[in-house]
Amino acid sequence: MIIVTSAATTYELPHPSGEFTFKFTFPNGDVVGYDPAYHVEGRGDYVQFLVDTTPENKQNGVYTIIEVEGVDTKGWSLLKRGYPIKRTSNSTNEFMFNYILGSDYDELKYATPNFYSVQVSSEQIRGYRSLTFFLMAAEDNKEDFFIVPADEEIEFGETIDFTLKKERNGIISDVDDSDVKWDVAQSLSISDYKDNVIIGTIDNAGLFSSDGGLFTSQDIGTCTISAKIDKKTVAKTKVVVKCPCDKEADLEEVIRLYKQRIPEGPYQTDIKAGNEWTTLGFNPGSVNNMYSVINSDYGEFTCGGYQAMVLEFLHNIQSTPDECHLLNGYDFGPIAGSFYAHHAVVVYPVGTYWKKTGVVFDPWVQQKPEVMSISEWEKMFFGAAGDKLSGNMNSYNITNSNEPVFFDARDFLVGSLHCPVNILITDSSGRQLGAVSDNEMAFDIPDASLLKMSDGEGGHQWYFTLPTTDEYDVDITAFDDGDFEFFVMNSNTEQLQDYGKNPIQKGETAELELSSEDPTTPMILPDKTEVIPTQEILVVPEVSASSTVVKEKGLPGFELWVAVSMVFMVMLFRRS
To answer: In which domain of life is the source organism classified (predicted)?
Structure first.
């Protein structure tokens, strides 16, 4: 008769003579039941303890404490297979017992290596009083399946030979391949830009082969291997396929492919076709942004659009088996300059600080794929930070960090730049954008943007975008002597308001009111002269079909600048 226990871990077993009671305590709760009179053919009756097997107790044994009521620990001994493992001279009462698996012996009478006996002797009795017992794994009819090897990581081009195994009552055996249907699912590229990839295939046993479970890698990424029996999934495991490490990185080749695959903007394609552009003295990227206010096709070639193209290009390199080695040992991520108004991508050696070792991929400035050192880029855009406005920012180490965002860059901009003018814009609610003082910048106007970059000639270019829903007071204060030019691109009228070139002395301020409804508001110079802007319909060339674009994943960037809600693109720079 088997007695099933609940939460109890101590079992009291009286000797038939009534003289002693044997107590067995299992502190870890390994025993789930017992039979006080289990008959073993040819051996007699034993106490059978049923063990709920675990990997720990299978390897180390079952922790057990034995006591005999009324008898000191030195008054009894413990024998295993007739040999003492505790003599009466030994005071210990804690033991680790091995247990019998059902498959160990065809007949239990031969399981003598795991038969134990507690023997008590005293002056009151003649001979011994003993209790014989053994521990045995509890029967479990449930079959547990698992795949070997589990959670494997390989390089592209390698294979894995999977086997389905089952465990029942502590017995592990292979499942016949002919009974298993293998499948590869949940293939996922390491690139956010690749869909519907097949990371690998796996063979099934069939008419021409009795073997199954051979996985062959086909792409870089992760997938799940599943094993089915009678159309039911019984086990799964994960496979990671990495880029091969036997080839060296080659950043120069990456740059060559970048210049080959990233399209030039409309400016470059038109110039090569013999067409002229009105640049107004600005770099091609700035003019592209101005045109994008009127023609949204130019939005693909703003800095945010280009950032998305470059990120996709690098992800595709990294996830293409024939090219991935080119970036072995390199990391990359989105960066921003000029208080998040400009966006690009940096590539840098893994384990280094990107602000010291990075190479910036930035096609926007000249509207063609170019690279420069991070130090050059920071000088042009007054600081750099991980672009936390970029999509999937947790995918990149430089954006998934606690590094301060632009506080150092702001201090650098205000404290050490020698800018000939400061610009301060105030809306009707008193909110401001620009330089409040020599050491304080304001960015309070909602949906407004500010970009400041070097013109390469000792001066600076400023760009503003402002919402259509308000009117603005603009103060232009000089910190050096020289001339400045001021343009406004009004998206309501699709006209360029040109205030021309005007002189200004250090410490002087020019003022004007900007309104989307009135494109004729004058600028008041320091000598109270009024400058009425000339108005010109800006002819924006159509984007040619040759300016093909890599598929964009919607990363935000400069295109936010040119949303429909924004009316002005103000361009102010110094010519001394």
So the answer is: Archaea
